[in-house]
């Protein structure tokens, strides 16, 4: 994925992660990659990755279990 750094980055990361969720790359109930892994993959800061994950959580695509991470929500 090519990131356009002239505009906010986290929405672009969220869009790509959303596409992957919509394509079924992650099954419902499956643990979602952590922000450290997402940041490394997209070459962004961990705070940028966190903003993308928070956006997906607000959309109901992910849920978080304290101490365990984020998981894919049922559709």
Automatic annotation (TrEMBL):
<dbReference type="Pfam" id="PF00392">
    <property type="entry name" value="GntR"/>
</dbReference>
<protein>
    <recommendedName>
        <fullName>HTH gntR-type domain-containing protein</fullName>
    </recommendedName>
</protein>
<dbReference type="GO" id="GO:0003700">
    <property type="term" value="F:DNA-binding transcription factor activity"/>
</dbReference>
<feature type="domain" description="HTH gntR-type">
    <location>
        <begin position="7"/>
        <end position="75"/>
    </location>
</feature>
<dbReference type="InterPro" id="IPR036388">
    <property type="entry name" value="WH-like_DNA-bd_sf"/>
</dbReference>
<dbReference type="InterPro" id="IPR036390">
    <property type="entry name" value="WH_DNA-bd_sf"/>
</dbReference>
<dbReference type="InterPro" id="IPR050679">
    <property type="entry name" value="Bact_HTH_transcr_reg"/>
</dbReference>
<dbReference type="GO" id="GO:0003677">
    <property type="term" value="F:DNA binding"/>
</dbReference>
<dbReference type="GO" id="GO:0045892">
    <property type="term" value="P:negative regulation of DNA-templated transcription"/>
</dbReference>
<keyword id="KW-0804">Transcription</keyword>
<keyword id="KW-0805">Transcription regulation</keyword>
<keyword id="KW-0238">DNA-binding</keyword>
<dbReference type="InterPro" id="IPR000524">
    <property type="entry name" value="Tscrpt_reg_HTH_GntR"/>
</dbReference>
